[in-house]
């Protein structure tokens, strides 16, 4: 039986490898070209990966500026929501978002939504805004991809209307915010002269871009070529000093939009010289299982439906600020494992 010399086998393997690399590169370039063409053909006011926020000329359809008129405003909270989430907004208004003063510190809670071309839905939203005075409607369409624009719009709105506020928070309408604990935490920062240059939340470091086309968090190398994202706060809830909120907005005017909202804010923070700070009491991931001893020690909890939010709030009001025993805390942690 005739055998192939080792040198010949090596050459064959090398040729096959080179052919495979060349084919992969050509396929990727072709896919990227088709994707870029599709993105650039999108109409105005929709999402694009290639232009900074300044090119969107972000405007507002509804803007309740009177919400931020108080010169002693301590914290303004911008809750990102969607048109149809009436029940979620109602639950927040009836629970944690109902507070306007805690420990003498003044608060304001508002909801940020996108535009709609449905006349009936728009009339309902306008009426909701008139009734509660807490709707900020941006002139960009609702979509998951446009969440970045929605957050930038929130930063722009607070920069225009709430510059006197000491702190700005961005959160979502499925999040429980423990206002009393949050206010105490921010008051401590203020007393230690750390109320400037502050960006506080659940910080993700050492996150790698997803390079597989079609995945939810896919990131094209043409848009973000680096192999590691800068540190960023999880988008479900984070707090900024008002100077940071303004600097992030101004930076976004020059930074091309990225479809992953929290990553984009991390990129803007890096460019603005802002270092996000981790705080262990910000909930990092969705966890809908309410437990009193766990929730009383959190600043935010993510992933609650309106009914869960109402039940959690009612239970916390009944139990007040009582201390939890070691046994209770251990039982709750054990329950979370199953």
UniProtKB/TrEMBL annotation:
It is a single-pass type II membrane protein. Its EC number is 2.4.1.-. Keywords: Glycoprotein, Glycosyltransferase, Golgi apparatus, Membrane, Signal-anchor, Transferase, Transmembrane, Transmembrane helix. One of its GO terms (molecular function) is hexosyltransferase activity. It comes from the Eukaryota. GO terms for biological process: protein O-linked glycosylation. The keyword Membrane applies. It is an enzyme of class 2 (transferase). GO terms for cellular component: Golgi membrane. Pathway: Protein modification; protein glycosylation. It is found in: Golgi apparatus membrane. InterPro entries: Glyco_trans_31, Nucleotide-diphossugar_trans. Pfam families: Galactosyl_T. Belongs to the glycosyltransferase 31 family. This is Hexosyltransferase. The gene is LOC109464844.
């Amino acid at each position: 039986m005739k055998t192939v010399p080792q040198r010949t086998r090596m050459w064959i393997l090398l040729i096959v490898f080179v052919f495979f690399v060349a084919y992969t590169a050509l396929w990727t370039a072709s896919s990227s070209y088709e994707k870029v063409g599709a993105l650039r053909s999108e109409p105005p006011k929709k999402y694009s990966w290639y232009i900074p926020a300044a090119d969107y000329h972000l405007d507002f359809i509804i803007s309740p500026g009177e919400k931020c008129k108080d010169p002693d405003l301590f914290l303004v909270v911008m809750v990102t929501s969607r048109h149809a989430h009436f029940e979620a907004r109602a639950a927040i208004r009836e629970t944690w978002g109902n507070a306007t003063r805690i420990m003498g510190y003044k608060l304001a809670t508002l909801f940020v939504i996108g535009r709609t071309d449905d006349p009936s839905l728009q009339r309902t939203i306008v009426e909701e805004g008139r009734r509660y005075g807490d709707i900020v409607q941006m002139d960009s369409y609702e979509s998951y991809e446009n969440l970045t624009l929605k957050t930038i719009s929130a930063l722009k709105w607070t920069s225009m209307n709430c510059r006197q506020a000491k702190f700005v928070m961005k959160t979502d309408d499925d999040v429980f915010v423990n206002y009393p604990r949050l206010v105490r935490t921010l008051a401590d920062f203020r007393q230690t002269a750390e109320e400037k240059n502050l960006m506080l939340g659940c910080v993700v470091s050492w996150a790698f871009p997803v390079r597989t086309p079609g995945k939810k968090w896919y990131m094209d190398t043409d848009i973000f070529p680096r192999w590691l994202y800068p540190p960023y706060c999880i988008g479900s809830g984070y707090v900024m000093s008002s100077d940071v909120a303004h600097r992030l907005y101004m930076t976004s005017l020059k930074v091309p939009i990225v479809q992953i909202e929290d990553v984009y804010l991390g990129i803007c923070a890096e460019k603005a010289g802002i270092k996000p700070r981790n705080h262990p009491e910000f909930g990092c991931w969705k966890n809908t299982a309410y437990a009193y001893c766990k929730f009383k020690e959190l600043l935010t909890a993510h992933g609650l439906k309106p009914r869960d939010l109402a039940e959690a709030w009612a239970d916390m009001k009944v139990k007040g600020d009582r201390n939890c025993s070691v046994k209770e805390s251990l039982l709750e942690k054990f329950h979370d494992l199953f």
